[in-house]
Design a protein that fits this description.
single chain, alpha+beta, 8-stranded antiparallel β-sheet, two-stranded antiparallel sheet, 12 strands, globular
């Protein structure tokens, strides 16, 4: 299989975030299974390769009964997808010479849980600054969690409960990246996100506004999360 990388974009990798952009949203018991149904329908994965507890850093069972209870936070990782299903989702490749049969997605990752996760900084193009941390039920400021399982899919984590108040962040978008942003405003933190990692197989839409062309997939995913989605593209 050809691993797409040519021309001036050689070595660049791209991943696409769908984040639930609702400050009061919390995952439900069936959130993970509902998202998996969407992935299965779009041929992006029918069973995870691994499930990790983000607080303890422990690998959990991939059985559905375990995946359905995210607690403070889990990550559910689905493996590589090849071929036409990638082009159906993402549209043509960044590279005109790449055939649909040679397309790939490196992995797809679902992250859900009650804690607040601050969105990662992308190649210095988008940075979310914490203006006010979340508050506990008594109005006290909460501190970032120290020693949580490391992930390159988010920056910091703050504890969250059903009575905590969410943080406030400010988005800083570099001038060169403003043409790629597909949102007017964004919370900058989330409790639920799906990340599609295209690796070096850059989708063509990454040249312009970072919005997935498969709008039906976005609709289906929003229905599965039961919340509004914001899309954030990242080059690595």
């Amino acid at each position: 299989m050809i691993r797409a990388a040519s021309g001036g974009a050689m070595g660049i990798e791209y991943r696409h975030f769908f984040v639930v952009d609702d400050a009061r949203w919390r995952p439900q018991a069936d959130t993970a299974s509902r998202v998996e149904q969407v992935l299965r329908a779009w041929s992006l994965g029918d069973r995870p390769d691994k499930v990790i507890d983000l607080v303890r850093g422990e690998q959990l069972s991939t059985e559905p009964a375990t995946v359905s209870a995210p607690g403070r936070g889990i990550t559910v990782v689905y493996g590589e997808v090849d071929g036409a299903a990638v082009e159906k989702l993402a549209g043509p490749s960044y590279y005109p010479e790449i055939r649909p049969a040679d397309r790939y997605i490196m992995r797809t990752t679902l992250l859900v849980g009650d804690d607040y996760r601050i969105h990662t900084t992308s190649d210095s193009s988008i940075y979310f600054e914490v203006m006010e941390p979340p508050l506990d039920g008594r109005g006290n400021r909460l501190e970032p969690i120290d020693g949580e399982f490391s992930s390159d899919l988010y920056a910091d984590t703050f504890p969250g409960t059903d009575i905590s108040s969410p943080p406030t962040l400010r988005a800083h978008v570099a001038e060169f990246a403003q043409k790629n942003v597909g949102w007017a405003k964004c919370n900058g933190f989330w409790r639920g996100a799906l990340v599609i990692d295209f690796g070096k197989d850059l989708p063509g839409f990454a040249r312009n506004v970072h919005l997935l062309p498969a709008t039906q997939f976005v609709h289906d995913l929003s229905e599965a999360f039961r919340g509004p989605l914001v899309q954030i593209g990242e080059f690595n």
